[in-house]
Every structure is written in C-alpha cells, then in structure tokens.
C-alpha cells in the first residue's frame, strides 16, 4: 500500500488529481492530511447514521429491542451479509453473480463455491475439455490422457500430472 506523499507516516487512502490545462498531477494522501487541507472526507459510519430520518426514531427502536423476550430473540434473523468494501448485498450477488469489487469474492466465498459445485466446475482451469481431443485425431481417452500428461510435465504442472497419471493407471487396470 502506498504511503501518504504529504506526511509519509500513514497509508494513502485518497488520490487527488489536479488538472491544469492539459497537464494532470496526482497525489496520494492520507485522510488526516486531507482534512488539514480542508478536503471533506466522507465517514461511512456517519453517512449510515445520517441516513436515519430522525435520531428519536432510532432511540424508540432501541427501547423496543431492550424489551424483547427470549422467544423473539430465537426468531431473530441476522442481517444480510454485505461486502465490507463496496457494500454489495449477498442476495444481489447471488442473483446476478457480478462482483462489485475484488473483495466480494472473499466476502461471498461460500456462494462462489456453491455455484461452482452446482455447475460441476473446479475452481482451477484444467485446459480444454476432452471433446477437443477428437478433432486432433485421438482414438482413445487413454491416449488423450497420456498426451495431456506429457503436456503437464513439460509445463511443470506436477500436481495435474500426478492426477492424470493416477487416472491412466486406474483405467488401464480396470478399477
């Protein structure tokens, strides 16, 4: 992570871009230096609190929660999971399978794994499917697997090579 170009002590979280004619100048600064320069730095927590229409309603809701009995607590549904970086909801991610940022993949890892399992795909790329081998003149699956084994060894993908070797052995022994 880049350090602040102004103080050099804190990580830079803001990028300022100044345009003068055809020239552009960029500076990376921390939030403290930005506030010293008079730049309004939004506080996500403050924005969330400001979204409430009135703080009094919030106090009333808080009083309601303090009087909740144990049976209602058991029926409590936790809030929907959100990406900590972009704020995308889990339901939206499940619906369109489009991440809002790179952190969505870590936040919704369970959803990603579930979708891959449902599609019977691995998390890793293993090359072209077997049906492409038929166009290259392979007559048997074992011959194709030997070809792929040779390619894996040449590319130094030894884990894949071991899997292919074991698969060939199982096919030859009839297991």
UniProtKB/TrEMBL annotation:
Gene Ontology MF term list: cadmium ion binding; cobalt ion binding; copper ion binding; zinc ion binding
**SUPFAM superfamilies the UniProt entry points to:** C-terminal UvrC-binding domain of UvrB
Keyword line: DNA damage, SOS response
| Ranges for domain UVR | 139-174
Gene3D superfamilies named among the record's database cross-references? UVR domain
Q: What Pfam families does this protein map onto?
A: UVR
Q: Does the keyword DNA damage apply?
A: yes
Mention one GO biological process in which this protein takes part, according to its record: stress response to copper ion
State the name under which the record lists this protein. UvrB/UvrC protein
Instruction: Provide the species name.
Output: Chitinivibrio alkaliphilus ACht1
């Amino acid at each position: 992570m880049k350090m602040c170009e102004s103080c050099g002590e804190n990580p830079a979280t803001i990028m300022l871009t100044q345009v003068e004619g055809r020239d552009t100048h960029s500076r990376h600064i921390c939030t403290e230096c930005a506030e010293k320069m008079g730049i309004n730095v939004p506080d996500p927590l403050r924005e969330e609190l400001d979204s409430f229409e009135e703080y009094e309603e919030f106090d009333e809701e808080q009083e309601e929660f303090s009087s909740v009995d144990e049976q209602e607590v058991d029926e409590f549904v936790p809030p929907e999971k959100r990406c900590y970086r972009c704020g995308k909801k889990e339901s939206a991610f499940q619906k369109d399978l489009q991440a809002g940022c790179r952190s969505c993949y870590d936040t919704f890892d369970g959803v990603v794994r579930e979708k891959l399992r449902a599609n019977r795909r691995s998390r890793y790329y293993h090359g072209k499917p077997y049906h492409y081998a038929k166009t290259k003149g392979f007559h048997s699956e074992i011959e194709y697997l030997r070809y792929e084994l040779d390619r894996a060894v040449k590319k130094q993908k030894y884990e894949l090579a071991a899997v292919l070797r074991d698969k060939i052995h199982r096919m030859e022994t009839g297991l």
